[in-house]
Amino acid sequence: MTTNHELFERARLKLPGGVNSPVRAFKSVGGEPFFTARADGPYLWDVEGKRYIDYVGSWGPMIVGHNHPHVRAAVARAIDDGLSFGTPCPAEVTMAETVTRLVPSLEMVRMVNSGTEATMAAIRLARGFTGRNKIVKFEGCYHGHGDAFLVKAGSGALTFGVPTSPGVPAGLADLTLTLPYNDLAAAERLFEEAGSDIAGLIIEPVAGNMNCILPREGYLKALRDLCTRHGALLIFDEVMTGFRVALGGAQQHYGITPDLSTFGKIIGGGMPVGAYGGRRDVMSQIAPSGPIYQAGTLSGNPVAMAAGLAMLELIQAPGFYADIARRTNTLSDGFATIAAECGVPMTTNAICGMFGLFFTSEKVETFAQATACDTALFNRFFHGMLERGVYLAPSAFEAGFLSSAHDDAVIAQTLDTARDALRAALK
Ligand code: PLP
Question: Name one GO molecular function term (predicted).
Fold first, then answer.
């Protein structure tokens, strides 16, 4: 049998850090990652045969659990007809019709291959449409690895302490203005000073890359108004929240209409897919109907579209989101209760299908609060959970994800494990 350790040794010789995406390497929590052999429902099994209850869900896509038979069957049917055509295919049209129906702010949509591609294209479009160069993002928000976004970024960039990456030209970074999340006065000041230069403001409407932070009451609406007043486009990055916090995403949950939105993860059903879309007058500026260029050899790939469409069918089941929301609350309240029993300060944030645990006594609403939590305790807790067969995201700065396969029994087992793991972490 190949062990996790042997595979990591081999991987490290040929892949930078042994991985193809940084947070997978366990650098922030310490130790070595496991290598997954297969996945089903709420579980992963590593190459040594150990089973884990999985709260990462492939970093978001797996909202119906791993390896769902409906998605698998759709992929198998699509594969029979070929892997890629390079011409338009019917599934792309169905996909466009489906997502524009589920997310009403999308009057038109363009399919791409990842969340990063979607956000990069969206800001190019915002710049081309407005004729302005500056964009606004929020400290601790992550929008993929495009140059313009690796300025005070979240996720792996934050985990590894290089929130602004070397290799991003200063001239380009200067065009990215950053704001503290949930601080409306700061946004108002910035727009007062620079509003006429701002092409667009991009935000995770629920932040999931500095742990999980919810927008304050009225915050998103106030940002909507600011953008409208100053002629900047409001871009909701719903790569994580889209089809997760509600069928119509965070924009439906909070009742806000952005000008543009970006998607990834769930929309591809586990295949590499992203999308961006929004106002018809803005989207019409994209080539070939307009002059702003964006393209992709594999965009709208028939197999990926089949997986995504099958996923979008499943999530429209009646009660799908109500069930996940209820279980998300059971889990996050359960964590808080256990911490209280153990005398450990912990607060939690939760919204349908997403949760965050913070080792602090404060309600966490800002980046500064998230980064001030006890990460050493989180790391011990993470490893205690992992040893006992529960896989949380391997960083204190990532949100946790639930799926419809995380039933009440799985959640109860998780909480029993958490009690043991937390006690052990305190010794
Ligand atoms: N935007 C958000 C909010 C994300 O969470 C991510 C990835 O985690 C991205 C964009 C980038 O997506 P991808 O990793 O598919 O390029």
Answer: glutamate-1-semialdehyde 2,1-aminomutase activity
Closest CA to ligand 1's atom 5: 240
Task: Kindly state the average pLDDT of the residues 130-145.
Answer: 96
**Is the CB–ligand 1 distance for residue 61 below 6 Å?**
no
Q: Please state the rounded mean pLDDT for residues 251-276.
A: 98
Ligand 1 atom closest to 114 (CA) = 15
CA-CA distance, 95 to 312, in Å (whole number)? 9
Cα of 141 from ligand 1 centre, angstroms: 10
> Which CATH architecture best describes the domain 4-63+319-426?
Alpha-Beta Complex (3.90)
pLDDT reported for residue 166: 85
Q: Report the sign of the C-alpha dihedral through residues 111, 117, 120, 124, in that order.
A: negative
Provide the annotated active-site residues: 142, 237, 265
Other residues' Cβ atoms within 10 Å of the Cβ of residue 317: 11
Rounded Cα gap, residues 340 and 419, in angstroms = 10
Instruction: Say if the ipTM goes beyond 0.90.
Output: yes
Residue 258, pLDDT score: 99
Classify domain 69-314 at the CATH topology level: Aspartate Aminotransferase; domain 2 (3.40.640)
Domain range annotation of the chain: 4-63+319-426, 69-314
